[in-house]
Design brief:
Blueprint: H1 3-15, H2 23-38, E1 42-48, E2 54-59, H3 62-74, H4 78-85, E3 89-93, H5 102-110, E4 115-123, E5 126-135, H6 143-197, H7 201-214, H8 219-229
Antiparallel strand pairs: 1-2, 1-5, 3-4, 4-5
Length: about 240
C-alpha cells in the first residue's frame, strides 16, 4: 500500500471540514482513492436523501455507477442491506450469491465483478449511506485493507455530517437575519404611520397588522410597501399575494 497516498487521503478528507466543501468532488475523491489504495477494481458511494431514500452519489467508473443504480432500482444488493442494517457486508462472492441477490449478482458478474464489500457510512447510530468496493477477482479483501476502508468511510461520514450541520446553521442564521431585517422595516412603517395619522406606535402597529390580515398579505410586505410608497394615505397601496 502507498503509505504516502494514504496519509494524503486522510489529510484531504479532513481538510473538507475547514475549507470550501464540494460534496461531489469530495465523494469522487473518496471512491478514487479507495480504488488506488486498496486494489479494488471500482468503488461507489450511495447516500440517503432527506427522505431516507438512497441515491447514487459517486462512483469511480461508469460500470460501478450503473451497478449501484441497478441495486437501487431493483431494491436488491449488498449496499441496501448494509445501509438498512448498519453493518458491513464482507467477503461476498458474487458468483455464488445468486440465491441472496439474484438480479444484482447476475448484473455484477456481467459487468466484470466477482467480489463486493459494502461498508456503512455511519456515526454512532446514524447511517447516511454505504461505501461499496468491487473487485474483478474472487475472494475477500484483506482484513487490514477493510479496516482502512472503514476508516475512510468514517472520516468521510464525519465530513458530510459536519457540512450538513454548517448548512443548517447557515440556514438558521439567514432566517434570523431575515426576521431582524423584517423587524426593522416594520418599525419604520410604524413610525411613519404613527406620525402621519397622529396615533401612538402600538395603534400604528395594530393598523398595519389588521390591514395585512384583511388583505391576506404578509405583515413585512405591507410595511415595506408603505415605507417605500411615498403616499400619505392609509391603507397603503400593497400588492396582493396570488390567490389572496
Amino acid at each position: 500500500m502507498d503509505t504516502d497516498l494514504l496519509s494524503d487521503t486522510f489529510v484531504d478528507l479532513a481538510d473538507t471540514m475547514v475549507a470550501d466543501f464540494d460534496v461531489l468532488d469530495f465523494l469522487h475523491m473518496l471512491t478514487d482513492r479507495t480504488v488506488a489504495l486498496l486494489g479494488a477494481s471500482a468503488a461507489g458511494v450511495v447516500l440517503a436523501d432527506p427522505r431516507g431514500e438512497l441515491r447514487v452519489a459517486a462512483a469511480s467508473s461508469e460500470e460501478a455507477g450503473l451497478l449501484e443504480l441497478f441495486q437501487l432500482q431493483n431494491d436488491q444488493g449488498p449496499c441496501l442491506e448494509c445501509f438498512r442494517t448498519g453493518r458491513p457486508i464482507t467477503g461476498t462472492d458474487l458468483t455464488s450469491a445468486a440465491g441472496q441477490w439474484p438480479r444484482f449478482a447476475q448484473a455484477a458478474v456481467q459487468a466484470g465483478f466477482r467480489t463486493v464489500e459494502a461498508l456503512p457510512m455511519r456515526l454512532r447510530d446514524q447511517v447516511i449511506g454505504a461505501l461499496n468496493l468491487f473487485r474483478a477477482e474472487t475472494g475477500p479483501f484483506d482484513p487490514a485493507d477493510l479496516r482502512i476502508a472503514q476508516a475512510l468511510a468514517d472520516v468521510a461520514t464525519i465530513g458530510l455530517l459536519h457540512e450538513r450541520n454548517v448548512r443548517r446553521r447557515e440556514t438558521v442564521a439567514e432566517q434570523l437575519q431575515a426576521a431582524l431585517n423584517s423587524r426593522v422595516v416594520i418599525e419604520q412603517a410604524k413610525g411613519k404611520l404613527a406620525e402621519r395619522l397622529g396615533v401612538d406606535m402600538d395603534r400604528a402597529f395594530m393598523m398595519l397588522r389588521d390591514y395585512a390580515r384583511a388583505t391576506n398579505q404578509h405583515l413585512t410586505d405591507v410595511a415595506g410597501d408603505f415605507v417605500t410608497s411615498g403616499t400619505a394615505e392609509f391603507p397603503p397601496p400593497v400588492r396582493r399575494r396570488p390567490g389572496g
